[in-house]
Amino acid sequence: MSLSVPESAVRPASHPDTPPPGTRLPAHYEGCFGCGNLEGGMRMSFVVAEDLAVTSTFAVQRHHQGAPGIAHGGVVSAAFDEALGLLAVHHREPSVTASLQTQFRKPVPVGSVLHLRTRIVGREGRKIWCEGEARLDAPDGPLAATASALFVVVPMTHFAEHGTPE
């Protein structure tokens, strides 16, 4: 099951300030579980791609497992949440996850590298629909999971009101 994109949603163009394809993106916040450099974090890396997309990798470590030797499904969903959220590089406005659906296709073994490709599929007002796929050990490897999400653009004050001063 995936989130339905209404027919009234349009596929936006990238913001003029979007870095060119091939640009590596830094962590948006060093304290982030997904892209920061935290012990026990995911330490994901991201590259701007064409067609309103971002590619990323996630090396699955022992501390990411649920069942013995297999990545925890919540960690795989967190990888999608991070990769889908980084699509904001294309619209240059802060946004937050409103809904995220993950479909698991294959187990993700500890020691494997997930290659994610996420892209924006539509926008209507503050709502942005995105989708992604995760493949095992190579960008064209076996399909491990797919995801669809709805993000909502928020003012920057959202983070000051609901987060910490840092």
Automatic annotation (TrEMBL):
Q: Which GO terms describe its molecular function?
A: hydrolase activity
Cellular component GO terms, alphabetical? cytoplasm; membrane
Enzymatic class: hydrolase
Chain intervals for the UniProt region annotation (Disordered): 1-25
Catalyses which reaction? Answer: hexadecanoyl-CoA + H2O = hexadecanoate + CoA + H(+); octanoyl-CoA + H2O = octanoate + CoA + H(+); (5Z,8Z,11Z,14Z)-eicosatetraenoyl-CoA + H2O = (5Z,8Z,11Z,14Z)-eicosatetraenoate + CoA + H(+); (9Z)-octadecenoyl-CoA + H2O = (9Z)-octadecenoate + CoA + H(+)
Q: What is its EC number?
A: 3.1.2.2
All residue ranges annotated as the Thioesterase domain in the record: 69-133
A family per Pfam: 4HBT
Q: Does the keyword Membrane apply?
A: yes
Sorted alphabetically, the Gene Ontology BP terms of this entry are: fatty acid metabolic process
Q: Supply the alphabetized keyword list.
A: Apoptosis, Cell membrane, Cell projection, Cytoplasm, Fatty acid metabolism, Hydrolase, Lipid metabolism, Membrane, Transit peptide
Instruction: Spell out the subcellular localization from the entry.
Output: Cell projection, Ruffle membrane; Cytoplasm; Membrane
Keyword Manganese among record annotations? no
What InterPro entries does UniProt report for this protein, alphabetically? HotDog_dom_sf, THEM4/THEM5_acyl-CoA_thioest, Thioestr_dom
Q: Known CDD domains for this protein?
A: PaaI_thioesterase
What family name appears in the similarity comment? Belongs to the THEM4/THEM5 thioesterase family.
Q: What is this protein called?
A: Acyl-coenzyme A thioesterase THEM4
Lineage, uppermost ranks: Bacteria, Bacillati, Actinomycetota, Actinomycetes, Pseudonocardiales
